[in-house]
Design goal:
By secondary structure, the chain is an alpha+beta fold. It is 35% helix and 14% strand. The chain has 9 helices and 10 strands. The strands form 2 sheets. Strands 4, 5, 6, 7, 8 and 10 form a 6-stranded mixed beta sheet that branches. A 4-stranded antiparallel beta sheet has the order 2-1-3-9. Strand 7 and strand 8 form a beta hairpin. Helix 6 runs antiparallel to helix 7 and helix 6 runs parallel beside helix 8.
């Protein structure tokens, strides 16, 4: 990726030029999509490609497995089975991470304006709706890091649209930071709690506090099945603490906050709380 490569109209010729430059390539079919797995490789029953870290290498000679089929081997690129794909191909693609680069795919005018203000200048390639900004260095690929912004590097592919213009810069921390997922903010909630009428089992304030703390911990430690864990926890809290009027909105908000740190939405929390109350006849 460090040397300009002339584009040829013939996809196979362009692919061979890229492969010779150390850029892993693959053909794209109509819709800018990679060729899907063949019958033998469907569902990765073949074991997958070596760089997919599957159980074993796939010996299928076809350009299967999407981005993982990208190769720099000219014998593979020019093989008869790949030749058939090139005849149907609408474009040439490459695996940016395999070439040691990261593509910041800017898909609209707002994304372009943001990049020009926030990111260091680097090599750029015009696309149909925006630009590819290419940086030296690989990282994880993440789509939708901002409105109209995707990061394409490892385990991904990008269309080859030419060598671009400008000097390629090193991958900046500002781009790496885009891939870091920030937990969604915990929104305050208002839920229905009972105002009294039942026998109070809370002999001391610590009894209720300990129950809420244990419920928070149970939700936060859920390894899987978060929806079910949240519902069962709400059910347990309401059955134990929900009939005498000691359970307040503040207690429920703590449980909702714990659930939201595990990825639950406020709507899911409210539905689980309501369903638990209905199940208990409250």
């Amino acid at each position: 990726m460090t040397h300009p490569i002339p584009i040829r109209r013939d996809h196979l010729a362009s692919a061979l030029d890229l492969a010779a430059a150390g850029v892993p390539v693959l053909p794209l079919r109509q819709g800018k999509l990679p060729f899907g797995n063949c019958i033998v490789c469907a569902g990765n029953m073949c074991g997958g490609r070596p760089n997919m870290k599957a159980s074993g290498p796939c010996r299928c000679p076809r350009p299967c497995h999407g981005w993982a089929a990208a190769t720099t081997d000219p014998a593979v690129v020019a093989s008869p089975v790949w030749g058939s794909a090139w005849k149907q191909a609408e474009a040439v693609a490459y695996c940016p991470g395999g070439a040691g680069v990261t593509v910041v795919d800017l898909d609209n005018a707002a994304a372009l304006a943001w990049a020009r203000e926030s990111l260091p200048a680097t090599r750029t390639v015009p696309t149909t709706r925006g630009e590819h900004w290419i940086y030296r260095g690989a990282m994880s690929s993440v789509n939708g890091v901002r409105e109209g912004v995707d990061l394409k590097s490892t385990m991904s592919y990008a269309r080859w649209l030419g060598p671009g213009t400008g000097i390629m810069a090193d991958l900046p921390e500002a781009v790496r930071a885009l891939a870091v997922k920030v937990p969604p903010p915990v929104r305050p909630v208002t839920v229905a709690v009972l105002t009294g009428g039942g026998e109070c089992r809370h002999r001391t304030p610590a009894y209720l506090e300990r129950g809420i703390a244990m419920a928070e911990q149970r939700i936060c430690e859920a390894g899987g099945g978060v929806h079910a864990t949240v519902y069962r926890t709400f059910l347990a809290v309401l059955s134990t603490h929900g009939r005498c009027g000691c359970l307040t909105d503040a207690h429920a908000a703590r449980l909702f906050a714990a659930a939201q740190t595990k990825g639950e939405t406020a709507r899911h929390c409210a539905d689980a709380w309501s369903n638990a109350r209905t199940a208990l006849g409250m």
